[in-house]
Amino acid sequence: MMCELCELIAGNVITKFWYSDTLITIVNCSCCDIPMVVFHQHGERSERDRHLALGRVNALFDYECIRKTPRLVLYHEHWHIVGAKYKL
Questions:
Q1: Which CATH number does the domain housing residue 29 bear?
Q2: Residues 27-44: tens digit of each pLDDT
Q3: How far apart are CA 57 and CA 75, in angstroms?
């Protein structure tokens, strides 16, 4: 059985879809309804992956902050983009 965040990456999105590539998928969080960056692999990501993801977030959104501390899903790195406004 896949985890909830793996289901999102696989395309089973039940909230707003924003972006996807080989590293991350960005959809609205089903709990708080703000954009959420989901890395495509379980566990912590490398600094290089985080840097690349942050560049993509900065290209797509203006935002107040990025909350990187997980609240519910602890085994799958993901970020919440607080105060996000889509640039495009």
A1: 3.30.428.10
A2: 998 888 999 999 988 778
A3: 21
